[in-house]
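can u do me a favor
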């Protein structure tokens, strides 16, 4: 490709500026001095230009230069470079993102993974072969991204770039350029969640990591490269899962960088302040618990859950798992929110070995959403957060259901004093009417409508209340939270000191909900084709012919829509039109029979097996 002299000189100047910015001469001098020092002597061997270039290449200096040049060309979108295809994934992302020069941006580039020893013996996938994959999810200051899935390996090919905008926190100043001092005060981490998807589509949480990105503020040129050791989750939270190499870069570059001592001092002060707040809350919680036990000694056996472990084994107050979460236009009503939460599958935390004990693990919201499955506590915390966003007076209840199994569900109180239970796993709702134990024997009493047996405590993002009534049975409990003889409350000020957004640096940030990436119509058509094939094969084994009626199939879609609407909104409509259409479509002497089955997956074979049962 030939360039006019003006463009050629401009391109040379760009390359020259980048080499100066990288201090390439200093790096070459260091390598040269080291090579001469390690050389056995001029009498034995002379240092050749080829050896020196090989050393530069082995140190990765040439690769760093080329990466910087590729990135700058893409970022400035010069027409001379658009014709050259790039093998890496990050320039594609940058082509799609227009960088606002008046906004500060953080460019996080994943340069690859290594030491994922669980996949040390993983064979190389053949072309077209279905294999297990890794997907990296990221969240930073209300922005969420995910990488393309890559095959699981000891050194997975996770190479992708993500561009985060950094806004000012002060009201009315979100459009202004944030400086180094302003960014130093932002303790929001970049939350990295690594998910493994196996060949059957089942997901598993591999690691959850909070990255403090502010080391880039003290790096020359506003760019740094770090290796991050990802730890396992749950019972394996002390074991390393693998290492990711990350590059962090600020755009536009800082005119004046901070010293490393300033950044480290700020981080140390935040850790000390967080540790002091957590210590004071722990002292208060112990005193509160002693007072609770003094009311009745039997309170020792009640399910009063003040702290819970997250996926990283960190103990946090349960109130910190609930926030006010608004879904925008993604969810239109509280009942639709309940339906959405119920679609996330239930899975208890995996544990190695037997035993009747339940593994303790409450997931952070991002890990729960990315995995797409969790235990009843994860579902209840998410549903409570969404109901709070819709303006309801909602709480998470911790207690037991049938056979004394520990369980968590959601309670909402109406302005008229009515109490409704929400089962987050099924989206079912139950109206609670308390039994009066002092009523005459023949007086009519309401029958329990919910599957819940006992309730030990309730909480949301602002309050925590323990049940101190004579009986913790749900049907006898009165949910009058203002009555201290029935519910013992924790200090709201003490809770807010460790649970309010931004109160401590260790509090995980709240991620937003994202619009669905699935094409529902295409997935529905594909699933119907797979189900037809399975039905035809099954009937063929029984020596039965199969003929499909496309007209009747189309009519059934209105019935499915009505069932979905009833599940989301609690109302049924369109049944008369469906019945009339079916009567007209079914020939005389024939009978139409149909039965709806609800699934939480899109696996056609599993669905067909359920239908046969």
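np, heres the sequence
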């Amino acid at each position: 490709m030939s360039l006019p002299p003006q463009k050629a000189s401009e391109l040379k100047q760009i390359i020259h500026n980048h080499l100066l910015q990288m201090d390439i001469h200093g790096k070459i001098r260091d390598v040269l001095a080291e090579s001469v020092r390690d050389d056995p002597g001029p009498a034995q061997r002379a240092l050749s230009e080829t050896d020196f270039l090989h050393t530069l290449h082995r140190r990765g200096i040439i690769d760093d230069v080329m990466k910087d040049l590729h990135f700058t060309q893409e970022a400035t979108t010069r027409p001379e470079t658009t014709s050259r295809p790039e093998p890496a994934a990050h320039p594609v992302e940058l082509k799609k993102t227009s960088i606002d020069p008046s906004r500060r941006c953080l460019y996080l580039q994943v340069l690859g993974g290594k030491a994922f020893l669980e996949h040390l013996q993983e064979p190389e996938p053949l072309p077209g072969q279905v294999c297990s994959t890794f997907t990296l999810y990221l969240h930073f200051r209300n922005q969420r991204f995910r990488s393309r899935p890559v095959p699981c390996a000891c050194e997975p090919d996770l190479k992708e770039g993500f561009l985060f905008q950094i806004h000012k926190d002060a009201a009315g100043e979100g459009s202004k350029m944030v400086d180094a001092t302003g960014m130093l005060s932002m303790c929001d981490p970049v939350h990295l969640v690594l998910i493994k998807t196996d060949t059957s589509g089942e997901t598993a949480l591999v690691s959850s990591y909070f990255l403090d990105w502010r080391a880039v503020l003290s790096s020359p040129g506003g760019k740094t490269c770090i290796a991050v050791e990802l730890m396992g989750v749950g019972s394996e939270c002390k074991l390393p899962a693998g290492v990711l190499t990350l590059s962090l870069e600020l755009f536009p570059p800082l005119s004046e960088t901070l010293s490393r001592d300033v950044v480290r001092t700020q981080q140390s002060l935040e850790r000390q302040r967080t540790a002091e707040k957590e210590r004071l809350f722990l002292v208060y919680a112990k005193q509160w618990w002693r007072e609770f036990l003094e009311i009745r000694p039997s309170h020792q056996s009640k399910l009063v859950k003040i702290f819970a472990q997250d996926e990283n084994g960190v103990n946090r107050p349960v109130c910190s798992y609930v926030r006010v979460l608004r879904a925008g236009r993604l969810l239109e009503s509280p009942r639709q929110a309940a339906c959405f939460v119920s679609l996330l599958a239930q899975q208890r935390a995996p544990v190695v070995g037997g035993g009747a004990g339940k593994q303790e693990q409450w997931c952070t919201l991002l890990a729960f959403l990315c995995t797409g499955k969790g235990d009843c506590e994860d579902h209840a915390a998410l549903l409570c957060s969404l109901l709070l966003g819709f303006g309801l007076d909602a709480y998470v209840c911790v207690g037991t259901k049938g056979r004394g199994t520990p369980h968590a569900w959601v309670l909402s109180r109406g302005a008229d004093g009515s109490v409704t239970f929400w089962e987050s796993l099924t989206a079912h709702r139950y109206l609670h009417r308390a039994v009066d134990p002092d009523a005459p024997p023949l007086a009519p009493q309401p029958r329990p409508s919910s599957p819940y047996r006992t309730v030990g405590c309730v909480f949301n993002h602002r309050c925590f209340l323990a049940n101190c009534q004579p009986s913790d049975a749900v049907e006898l409990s009165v949910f009058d939270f203002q009555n201290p003889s029935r519910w013992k409350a924790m200090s709201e000020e003490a809770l807010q000191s460790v649970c309010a957004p931004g109160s401590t640096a260790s509090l995980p940030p709240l991620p937003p909900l994202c619009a669905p990436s699935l094409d529902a119509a295409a997935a529905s058509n594909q699933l119907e084709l797979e189900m037809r094939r399975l039905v035809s094969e099954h009937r063929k084994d029984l020596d039965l012919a199969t003929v499909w009626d496309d007209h009747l199939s189309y009519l059934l879609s209105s019935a499915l829509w009505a069932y979905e609407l009833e599940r989301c909104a609690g109302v049924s409509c369109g049944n008369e039109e469906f019945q009339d259409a079916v009567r007209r479509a079914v020939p005389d002497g024939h009978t139409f029979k149909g039965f709806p089955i609800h699934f939480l997956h899109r696996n056609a074979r599993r669905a067909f097996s359920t239908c046969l049962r």
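The radius of gyration is 30 Å. hope that helps!!
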